[in-house]
Amino acid sequence: MSSELLKRVECKLEEIPGLGTFIVVPKGLEQVIPDTTAISGVDPKGEQTLYRGYTIEDLGMNADFYEAAYLISRGVLPCDEEYKEFKKKIDYWRGRVPEKVYDALKTLPKTHPMYYGAYGALLLGQIYAPEWSFDKDSLYEHQIRLSAQLPVIFAAAYNLANHGTFVRPDSGVDHAWDLLRMITMREPTKLEARAFESSLVLYMDHGFNASCFTVRVVASTLSDMYSAIAAGIGALKGPLHGGANEEAMKMFLDAYKKAVEKGVPLEEYIVDYIKERLARKERIMGFGHRVYKIKDPRTDVAAYFIRQLKDGEMWIKVLKNAEKVMWESKKLPSNIDLYTAVLYYQLGIDIPLYTPIFAMGRVVGWTSHYIEQVLDNRLIRPTEKYVGPVGLKYQPMEVRCRR
Ligand SMILES: CC(C)(COP(=O)(O)OP(=O)(O)OC[C@H]1O[C@@H](n2cnc3c(N)ncnc32)[C@H](O)[C@@H]1OP(=O)(O)O)[C@@H](O)C(=O)NCCC(=O)NCCS
Fold first, then answer.
1. Which of 28, 367, 377, 396 is the most buried (most CB within 10 A)?
2. 357, part of any domain
3. What is this structure's pTM?
4. Are 52 and 71 in contact (CB under 8 A)?
5. In this predicted structure, what is the pLDDT of residue 168?
6. How many domains does the chain have?
7. Ligand 1 test: best mutation among 212, 280, 332, most atoms within 8 Å of CB?
8. Residue 138 Cα, ligand 1 centroid: separation in angstroms?
C-alpha cells in the first residue's frame, strides 16, 4: 500500500545540491500530515470525524453552541458552572461590539460580506490587542470575544450595506437565536434557531482544512489571533472551500428557473441539469471532498432539519436525486455545503451570507487551532523547488528593452 500511495501522490526524496535532502510531497499537500492536533479529525480507525472524541453527528444533533464551542476550545464538555460562565461571556461580548466598529461598518461599500469579516477581525485586533501576549488565559479571553463579536460584524455590515439598517445584538438571549435574528432581521422560531445552531456546530471545526491551515501558518509566525483569523476568512471565501454553499444554492436556483420553464418539478429536472453541466466539464459545487470519499457524515444532521423546514420533503428529494446522479456519473459524494445551502435558503437567509455563517461557526475552531499552534509552536515554512530560469543578469531598462 505505501509504495502504491507514494507512486499515486508522487512523493519522493530529492537532493538539492548545497541544501540537503528534501521530501517532495504532492501538489495540494494531499495525504500529507504536517502536524498533530487533538481538536478534531478522523478517528484512528478512519470511521468517524471527531471533535475532541465525540462524533460531529452526535454533537450536531445534541449539543448547543456553547457546549460545542467550550468542548472545541477546552477539550471537554462543560459542567454546570463552566457552562454558565462560558455562556455569560459569549452573550456579554456579543452585545458589546465597540461603537467605533459599527461606525466603521457604516462606511463600507456593498461588496462580498466575507470582506467585512476580515476587515472587522482586524479592527477588533487594533482595539483589543495593540500588544499581544501568549498567556493562555488571555488567549481564551480573546477567543471568546472574537467568537462572539465576529458574527455580529458580518450581520451588521451586510445589512447596513444592503438594507441601510441593522439589528443590534441582545445579550439576554441565546447566541444562535440572536445571530439568526440579526441576519434575517426577524424573530426566528425555536425550530429555525435550532437548525441554524446545529449548522454552526457542524461547521465549527474540521481538521487541517485550507482555512484552518492558513490560520496555523499565520499563528506559527507568532502573529496575533486577529491577523490569523482575518487570513482564515480570506481562505474560506474561495469557492473550493466555504464559498461552495453559496455556489450550490445559485445552482439550485438556476435549475429551478429552468425547471419552471420546462414545466418539470425541480426534483426530477435536477438530474438532467447536473448531467448537462457535467457534460460541459463543469464542477458541481457541494460535491467532492479531500477527505470524505464515500459520505460526509454532517449531511445527515442537516437533512434532519431540512426535512422539518419549509418544503422539506421536496428539498430532500432534490438533494437525493442530485446525489444519485453525481455518484453514478463521478463517484463523488455530496458535502455539507450542499445541505447548508438548502437549509439557509429555507431559513430565508440571503445567499451572500452563507459563507459568513460558515465563518460564524468556524471562528471557534480557528481560534482553538491558533491556541494549539502557539502553545507548541514551530514556524511552518516549507521549502520550494525552484524550476524557473537561472543565470540571468540584471540589465538597465534601456538595454533590456532595446528591440
Ligand atoms: C472539494 C474539492 C476541492 C476537493 O478536490 P480535490 O481533492 O483536490 O480533487 P480534485 O479537484 O483533484 O478532483 C479530482 C477529480 O474529481 C473531479 N471533481 C472533484 N470535485 C468535483 C465536483 N464537485 N464536480 C465535478 N467534478 C469534480 C475533478 O474534476 C477531478 O476529475 P479528473 O480526475 O477527471 O480531472 C473538489 O471536490 C471540489 O472542487 N468540489 C466542489 C467545491 C466544494 O463543494 N467545496 C466544498 C468542500 S467541503
1. 367
2. yes
3. 0.94
4. yes
5. 98
6. 2
7. 332
8. 40
